[in-house]
Amino acid sequence: MLIGFAVETDDLEKNAREKLTRKKLDFIVANDSSAFDAETNRVLLISSAGKVERLTEMPKSEVAKVIIERAVRLARHAAD
Questions:
Q1: What is the pLDDT of residue 45?
Q2: What is the 3-state secondary structure (H, E, C) of 28-62?
Q3: Rounded CA gap, 55 and 49, in Å?
Q4: Which residues is 54 bridged to in the sheet?
Q5: Taking the model in full, what pTM does it have?
Q6: Of the candidates 56, 43, 55, which has an alpha carbon nearest to the alpha carbon of residue 16?
Q7: Residue 11 and residue 34 in contact, taking contact as beta carbons nearer than 8 Å
Q8: What is the pLDDT of residues 20-78, one digit of tens each?
Q9: Phi-psi region of 40 (alpha: psi -120 to 50; beta: other; left: phi over 0)
Q10: Alpha carbon separation from 71 to 8, 10, 39 (Å, rounded)
Q11: Residue 13 CB contacts under 8 Å (≥ 6 apart), including other chains
């Protein structure tokens, strides 16, 4: 499973989708560059199937948990 990360300054979703395709990722986690110095983050999760999930702003530790949960879910579906 390949998970990518995209930090963008503009056209977040468009640029993340391009990186997802170019790097042949299973999904990508995209966020604005303003999150670097913040305690919280708001990200987009985009799957290779095109599903977009917009997470609300939350602590970065919670974002990490969601990313792991989505990866596990994707791995389980791939195994079915």
A1: 97
A2: EEEEEHHHCCCCEECEEEEECCCCEEECCCEEHHH
A3: 18
A4: 44
A5: 0.88
A6: 43
A7: no
A8: 999 999 999 999 988 888 999 999 999 999 999 999 999 999 999 999 999 999 888 87
A9: beta
A10: 22, 26, 23
A11: 30, 44, 46, 52
